[in-house]
Design a protein that fits this description.
Number of domains: 1
Structural class: alpha+beta
Distance between the termini: 40 Å
Strand content: 15-25%
Radius of gyration: 16 Å
Strand order of the largest sheet: 1-2-3-4-5
Largest sheet: 5 strands, mixed
CATH class: Alpha Beta
Number of strands: 5
Number of helices: 4
Shape: globular
Order of helices and strands: EHHEEEHEH
Helix content: 25-40%
CATH superfamily: Gcn5-related N-acetyltransferase (GNAT)
């Protein structure tokens, strides 16, 4: 197998990161009809805003100059007012961990996630949050993530 090159993503990589994010949902059983048709634009705007206000950064894996995997991370914007000091609670968030199917089970997602964690540590984050797919849970557990006390009540049934 050819060598895998890991690097920080640049603005020119945003479109592939958006495509990976779309494909992540599709691979997890979300019907294309349930995804906005302008998913690419929505994701690109989100990335640009997060880059400006939430220290967004992404990392990619390339094989033969082709991007085969990506991960995004940023400061967690929160769901309620931030009244705790940052030394107490400054969360980072990892999202969009995606490896194209032909390249899975080779340690790529692990390495990309480690890069995202290192970046969030450099921002003095106190914790890192991510939402794992069932397939991703073993990887994240292996990296030291633990299940949290998030509770969820579904108000609509999946179709």
């Amino acid at each position: 197998m050819d060598a895998i090159r890991f690097r920080e993503a640049n603005i020119d990589d945003n479109t592939i990161i958006a495509r990976h994010f779309f494909q992540l949902w599709r691979d997890n059983g979300v019907a294309e009809a349930s995804i906005h048709s302008d998913w690419r634009e929505i994701t690109l705007v989100f990335i640009e805003q997060a880059r400006q206000t939430l220290a967004y950064k992404a990392f990619i894996a390339e094989i033969n100059s082709e991007i085969v995997a990506s991960v995004s991370c940023q400061l967690f914007a929160g769901l309620y007012p931030h009244i705790l000091a940052q030394q107490q609670r400054k969360y980072g968030y990892i999202w969009g961990v995606y490896v194209e199917e032909a390249y899975r089970q080779q340690g790529i997602a692990k390495r990309l996630t480690q890069m995202a964690i290192a970046y969030l540590q450099s921002l003095s984050c106190t914790s890192v949050i991510l939402h794992a797919s069932p397939a991703g849970k073993p990887l994240y557990s292996n990296l030291g993530f633990r299940e949290s006390n998030e509770m969820r009540l579904d108000l609509i049934s999946p179709s």
